[in-house]
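Record filed below.
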Amino acid sequence: MERYERNGSGGPKPSTTGTGTEGDSREGEFGGRAAPPPAGFVRLTGGPFELGRQHGAARAVELRAFLGDGLARLNHLNDTPLTLDGLRPTIAAFRREIEAAVPELAEEIRGLAEGAGISHEEALLLQMRREVVGYQDTGRPPQGDCTTYTRVDPAGPHSVLAQTVDLNGNLDDQTCVLSVARTGTRREVLTLSFGGLLGYLGMNSDGLAVGINLVLGGRWRAGLPPYLAVRHVLDTAGSVDEALGVLEGLKLASSRSLTLCDPRGAAYTEFLDGRMHTVRAPRTVHTNHFLHREFIPYDKLNVFARNSSRRRLDACTLRLDALPEAALPTEHLALLSTPPIFVPDNGNIRRERTVAVVAMRPAFGDLHLLGSRPSEPARVFGARALSGAAGS
């Protein structure tokens, strides 16, 4: 199992740690805590179970510590304590849905459990953690959440999908980039992961990039967690058109917006209560309120959070207007790295804040990653088998 990253000049650079997650040697404070470690990088190869086993083995120390910290930090976020015993019926319901919808990922989750030395139920919980949190707490003061945009360059190679990753739970130490090469396919997937997730956002070697935004509405229920849906799309689709076809057949557990981009097209698609509405455009910007007119009446964001979401959408739109068409990845990262789009840490584990900033270029197959300290240089990861074949 090989681990690698590329430095800013694009050349290969070996990982400097065994698991890719030891802390930075520099001293410093970060929201009252020690500076976060750099994201890990793990290359996975093999069949579904073996992919999971390698992932679990590489991240075993981190994942066991995460689960031991208030049950994957869920008990730091909830007023009512949760237990694995109490969650077993919910986990079982999700397990059945995952096995029916994405059997290969279900097998990968079993491998994750074996490799990390955790139970199958714990490995499942890591995939559905956001659904366990739910959105019963939308009365909180305004908080940040992800801001995502795409811009397509039909005449050249500069199409991009960029976004902030805003999460609660202090997940900096659980950040990892996975490069997945599954037996039986030439497609390679590069995905950002947090706390054992098989997927979150990412890009594949066909040149399809997928981003994700939380939107709140409808009834959350047992189904396919949207993070697993992102990974499934990257595993099985090579273009925006193909991705939309895959998504139409999925029963998502919770409301989300997914943003899709390939070298020649882009779209965002919103999900609510089993319904899906898609908007195609050469440029898209999405934050955390529903944009499609059919879903706007069902938006459950409180007024403060909605105003925050609109401010970030307006700020991103204005900054994108001013950005050259051939902007470099560093410029896209910079666009997202200052308030109100970038949400700094204030020391409150329950508050969503920016833990990562990502820019992906489908035509180049590179993923540029900043952590929660935007003053530090970006790390660059690449999909080795890029074919450049994607197109809408």
